[in-house]
Description:
2 domains, four-stranded antiparallel β-sheet, Rossmann fold, binds adenosine-5'-triphosphate, alpha/beta
Amino acid sequence: MIRIRGLSFSIDGLTILEDIDLEIAEGEFVAIIGPNGAGKSTLLKLVLGFLPLPSGSIEIDGVPHLDWLKQHPVGYLPQREEFDRRFPASALDLVLMGLAGDLPLGARFGERHRQRALQALRTTRTEALAKKPIGSLSGGELQRVFLARALVSDSKYLILDEPEASLDMPGTQSFFALLRELNQAGKTVITVSHDLQTLSEYCSFLVCLNRRLHCHTQTDLVNSEIMHKTFGEAVRIIEKDY
Ligand SMILES: Nc1ncnc2c1ncn2[C@@H]1O[C@H](COP(=O)(O)OP(=O)(O)OP(=O)(O)O)[C@@H](O)[C@H]1O
Ligand SMILES: [Mg+2]
C-alpha cells in the first residue's frame, strides 16, 4: 500500500501539487492521467524519493517511504529517457543496470546477475536482443528493454512514466497486455499515460490529476464531469455506447 497524505510541492513559488491524498492498494493496476504539466511525473519522483518532500507524508507498506526505499527496490521506467544511443552497451548491459543497487561498491556483475537479466528480457520478449547494441534497437524494442530493466530487481511495485511514448498502436496494446500479465502475477502497477483508450481497456483504476487530485476510482466510473475537471472544459469527451 502506498499512502500519500497532505502532499504539496512547489518549485520557485509555483504550486505543482496541492494537498494530495491518495492510497494505492497492493495489486492495483492504476493509471495516472492529466494534461501536460499536471504534476504527474513530479508525483512519481516524490514517491520514488528522487525529490525532497516539503510537506505531507508518503508511506509505503506502513513505513515512511525513504526508509522503505532503503530496504526495497522499485522498478521504474522514466519518461522518455534521454541517453546517448552511441553509448557502447548491449540490451543485457542496460538491464543489468537495474541491479546496480544489489552490488557492493566496486563489485562486478556475476553469472547470477546475468541470469536474472536474461530472465527479465525473456519476460518482456526481448531475449533475442540481449547482445545487440542499444543504439541499434527500435523505439519499441528499447522500451521493452527498459521495462526489463525495471523488472529485473523483482520489486513488488512497478512505476512507469508514459511507457507508450515511442510505441505504435499494436506496440502499445502488447506492452499493456504484458503489464496486465505482470499485474495478474502480483505486481502493483502504476503508470502515467496519455493513451486514454488503452487505459480504459487495461487499467482497473484511474487517478485524475491536475495539480490537485480530481479522482481515484475504478476506470469505468470515470465520467465526463471528472474528465472536464481534470483536462479543462475545452476537451471533447466521446462516450462509448455499448
Ligand atoms: N526541475 C524543475 N524546475 C522547474 N519547474 C519544473 C521542474 N520540474 C517540473 N517543473 C514544472 O512542474 C510542472 C509539472 O511538471 P511534471 O513534469 O510533473 O508534469 P507532467 O504532468 O508529468 O507533464 P507531462 O504530461 O508533460 O509529462 C510543470 O509546469 C513543469 O514545468
Ligand atoms: Mg511527465
